[in-house]
Backbone:
């Protein structure tokens, strides 16, 4: 029988462990996990853009792929350590994921409100440890961070 993650904090802990794994691999410290309606973990993952040299391998994408094919996502919960970018917000919207839990949205604010406007329940936890972790990463790795969020600092003014 699979473990049940009953609270948003328990679910977030899975995503945080993934974010740390990504940082330990030399990547961007963002993690995510997808849970079914009962709180069973379907799949988890972390941002692997640097490690895999793959611009599409965001944390939510990795967790979604690792969850495998599901008949429906309506009762699923996507938990992510950071507000999802527009790409990952599109994934949540496209597959009708019913609930989105965001660890923090101070370091980056993506498309979470857009997802909520289209029926996904949104919970933002503002975890101080995640805010500190992302703040340090952004400060220490501005080029990698800007690449991840699609900011092109090489474009002419």
Residues:
């Amino acid at each position: 029988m699979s473990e049940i993650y009953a609270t948003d904090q328990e679910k977030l802990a899975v995503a945080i462990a993934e974010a740390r794994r990504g940082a330990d691999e030399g990547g961007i410290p963002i993690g995510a996990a997808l849970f079914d309606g009962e709180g069973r973990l379907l799949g988890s993952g972390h941002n692997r853009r640097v490690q895999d040299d793959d611009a599409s391998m965001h944390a939510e994408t990795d967790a979604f792929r690792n969850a495998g094919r599901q008949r429906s996502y309506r009762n699923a919960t996507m938990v992510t350590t950071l507000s999802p970018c527009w790409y990952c917000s599109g994934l949540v919207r496209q597959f009708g994921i019913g609930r989105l839990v965001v660890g923090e949205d101070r370091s980056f604010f993506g498309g979470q409100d857009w997802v909520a406007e289209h029926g996904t329940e949104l919970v933002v936890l503002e975890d101080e440890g995640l805010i500190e972790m992302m703040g340090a990463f952004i400060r220490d790795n501005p080029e990698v961070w800007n690449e991840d969020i699609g900011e092109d600092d090489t474009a002419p003014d």
Remarks:
- The radius of gyration is 15 Å.
